[in-house]
Amino acid sequence: MQVNNWVSDPPAGTGTGVLAGGSEIVSIGATLFVSSMQDNPVGMYTGTFSLTFAYN
């Protein structure tokens, strides 16, 4: 399985420039590509991904 085509709102690198009350909501998404049913049988899949938010 592969996860790619990551997107975010607001887009990476731009943000809104203001953190209202010290926070901002960021929505993220991606596309999951799976190969054959033999390689990836039906079931529950979990995983973790590191996200880094840098601010000044």
What does this structure look like?
The protein is mainly beta. It has a domain at 2-33. 0% of the residues lie in helices and 27% in strands. It contains no helices and two strands. A two-stranded antiparallel ribbon has the order 1-2. The radius of gyration is 16 Å and the shape is elongated. The termini are far apart.
Order of helices and strands: EE
What is the first-to-last residue Cα distance? 35 Å
Largest sheet: 2 strands, antiparallel
Low-confidence stretches: none
Task: Supply Rg.
Answer: 16 Å
Gross morphology is elongated
Strand order of the largest sheet: 1-2
Task: Output mean pLDDT.
Answer: 80
Kindly name the structural category.
Answer: mainly beta
Count of helix runs: 0
Instruction: Give the tally of β-strands.
Output: 2
State the helical fraction: under 10%
β-strand percent reads 25-35%
